[in-house]
């Protein structure tokens, strides 16, 4: 009886405390989390992670949410992603982060300030996939027909940043999405940079009619497909709710069939190659990844110590400090002479070592960068950057760039990076860089500058071979262009600049041969260890410069591997792509911090429609 009364009293006590002291209840609750576009992130890509947060209090919640990877023992890894959040009382809000994923399953933690304490919630991410992602965009107020094997993704969660949709390959659509300008612009740019849209009839039996804001896509044409930049839109005179999944697969496979045959042919051609002994997943890892590019840049930015001179001076100092002092004390009766020689020689050697240290460490801030600049149709450039920032005097630094729609990543999967990343229009990275060390990072953004444009003066091709090409350039063309190539079909044609024209003079090479010159894989930075996917760092026997990484930039610009899919790769007959290699101009470098030495290479990529004679 007493035990029952005791339990009753404790239950009554906690009930009263729950209602009387609501401050002990968490300020916010996290209800859902979406990993990428298909509930499984894509490895070695920036993926959107979307979290549904509810404010359970009667007053607004305004705080910073931090999203960071950590070990299962609770140790933080990589850099924290930060987002400033405001949620009205008893309201819910979707919060989106843009982390970089590797191949492993990781533990993630969301942290926020809850009054005078800090709260958190942990999540286990699914294992990232290496497959391409196809989704069906659905309206938030209604779900479309569930297609087996095709993930449905709410259109209101579509990221408003171009750098956050790299992991997405294809979209199935049967309506006009209700998007604000930022998401609509991101969708158009995603298609232009290589996205594929499968457009079906709406429930009324007609193809969706897009407003004028989508005019660049020309989606209202009656043809079976429309090309837009590197992307394509396929039209299907069918409704999704009237076809089976097998019929849908056949429709989608019909447009993918050439690439599958191409891949089969390419794999058969690999049988005589020495690297064919590695499994296919290992071959995928041999593609130059972001981490490998950043490691190469870090190696370039390392301080060069003059070790032989330092060893010689150390040896001389030992001679003076040993036998030299002994003979001075033996033959000199004046102690002042000994102390004078001792203090004087010590001061001289300290000064020499200080000068050598500063000279060899080059006590200036410096940056090594590689940039791919895709020229977009709306007078903007899509920037993809890899950089290593070296700092002589350490501290906390703000890394920011011109432009908008910024996404930053440090691509560290094994160590913690002290700092935070904020993505978006005012995106930046705040990071701690120790003295005489460097910080490498990946950056994606849009720059509101067109860069340059070209006009086709003359063009003649025969059997997918370029015979004549002349392009007119304007005053904005890079002044210090180092290499100029034109990709047509599966070949690169060398162009020469003659006053205000770019002219083809007969020199060309296969695209596959260029991409086979992958310095990161064929040189000495990374080599396979036996037959597994791990890499060992080798001694750098040859000096790897930024210009040696031009094939890597072309590989990443075309999203093609140097080992596989480039062997049969070719552009459509009515399309070409201009590659211009130049030193990075000042307007593409970071705004902060102030850097003394800047070294970088930029690859401009411009799609050029061809109209003229083609045999």
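Q: What amino acid sequence fits the structure above?
A:
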């Amino acid at each position: 009886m007493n035990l029952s009364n005791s339990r009753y009293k404790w239950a009554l006590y906690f009930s009263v405390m729950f209602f009387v002291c609501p401050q002990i209840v968490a300020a916010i609750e996290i209800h859902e989390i979406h990993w990428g576009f298909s509930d499984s992130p894509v490895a070695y890509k920036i993926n959107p992670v979307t979290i549904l947060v509810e404010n359970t209090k009667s007053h607004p919640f305004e705080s910073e949410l931090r999203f960071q990877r950590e070990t299962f023992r609770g140790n933080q890894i990589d850099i924290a992603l930060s987002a400033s959040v405001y949620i009205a009382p008893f309201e819910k809000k979707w919060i989106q982060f843009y982390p970089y994923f590797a191949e492993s399953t990781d533990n993630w933690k969301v942290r926020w300030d809850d009054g005078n304490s800090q709260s958190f919630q942990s999540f286990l991410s699914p294992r990232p996939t290496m497959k391409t992602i196809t989704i069906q965009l659905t309206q938030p107020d209604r779900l479309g027909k569930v297609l087996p094997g095709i993930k449905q993704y709410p259109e209101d969660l579509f990221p408003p940043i171009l750098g956050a949709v790299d992991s997405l390959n294809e979209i199935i659509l049967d309506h006009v999405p209700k998007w604000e300008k930022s998401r609509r612009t991101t969708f158009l740019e995603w298609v232009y940079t290589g996205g594929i849209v499968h457009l079906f009839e709406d429930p009324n039996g007609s193809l969706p009619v897009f407003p004028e804001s989508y005019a660049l896509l020309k989606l209202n044409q009656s043809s079976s497909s429309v090309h837009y930049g590197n992307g394509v839109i396929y039209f299907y005179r069918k409704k999704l709710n009237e076809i089976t999944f097998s019929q849908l697969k056949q429709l989608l496979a019909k447009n993918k069939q050439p690439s599958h045959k191409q891949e089969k042919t390419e794999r058969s051609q690999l049988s005589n190659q020495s690297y064919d002994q590695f499994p296919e997943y290992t071959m995928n890892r041999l593609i130059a990844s972001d981490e490998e590019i950043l490691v190469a840049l870090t190696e370039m930015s390392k301080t060069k110590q003059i070790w032989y001179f330092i060893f010689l001076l150390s040896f001389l100092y030992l001679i003076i400090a040993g036998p030299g002092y002994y003979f001075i004390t033996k033959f000199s009766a004046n102690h002042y002479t000994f102390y004078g020689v001792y203090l004087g020689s010590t001061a001289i050697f300290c000064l020499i070592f200080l000068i050598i240290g500063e000279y060899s460490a080059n006590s200036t801030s410096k940056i090594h960068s590689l940039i791919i600049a895709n020229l977009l149709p709306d007078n903007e450039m899509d920037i993809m950057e890899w950089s290593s920032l070296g700092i002589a005097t350490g501290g906390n630094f703000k890394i920011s760039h011109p432009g908008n729609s910024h996404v930053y990543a440090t691509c560290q999967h094994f160590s913690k990076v002290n700092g935070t990343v904020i993505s978006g229009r005012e995106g930046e990275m705040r990071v701690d860089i120790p003295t005489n060390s460097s910080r490498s990072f990946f950056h994606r953004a849009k720059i509101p500058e067109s860069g340059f444009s070209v006009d086709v003066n003359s063009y003649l091709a025969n059997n997918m071979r370029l015979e004549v090409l002349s392009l007119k350039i304007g005053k904005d063309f890079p002044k210090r262009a180092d290499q100029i190539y034109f990709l047509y079909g599966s070949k690169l044609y060398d162009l020469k600049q003659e006053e205000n024209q770019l002219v083809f003079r007969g020199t060309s090479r296969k695209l596959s041969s260029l991409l086979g010159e992958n310095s990161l894989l064929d040189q000495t930075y990374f080599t396979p260890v036996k037959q597994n996917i791990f890499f060992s760092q080798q001694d750098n026997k040859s000096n790897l410069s930024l210009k040696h990484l031009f094939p890597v930039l072309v590989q990443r610009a075309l999203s093609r591997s140097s080992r596989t899919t480039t062997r049969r790769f070719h552009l459509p007959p009515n399309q070409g792509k201009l590659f211009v290699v130049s030193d990075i101009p000042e307007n593409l470098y970071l705004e902060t911090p102030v850097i003394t030495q800047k070294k970088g290479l930029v690859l401009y990529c411009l799609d050029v429609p061809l109209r003229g004679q083609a045999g």
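Q: And what stands out in the fold?
A: The first strand starts at residue 28 and ends at 35.
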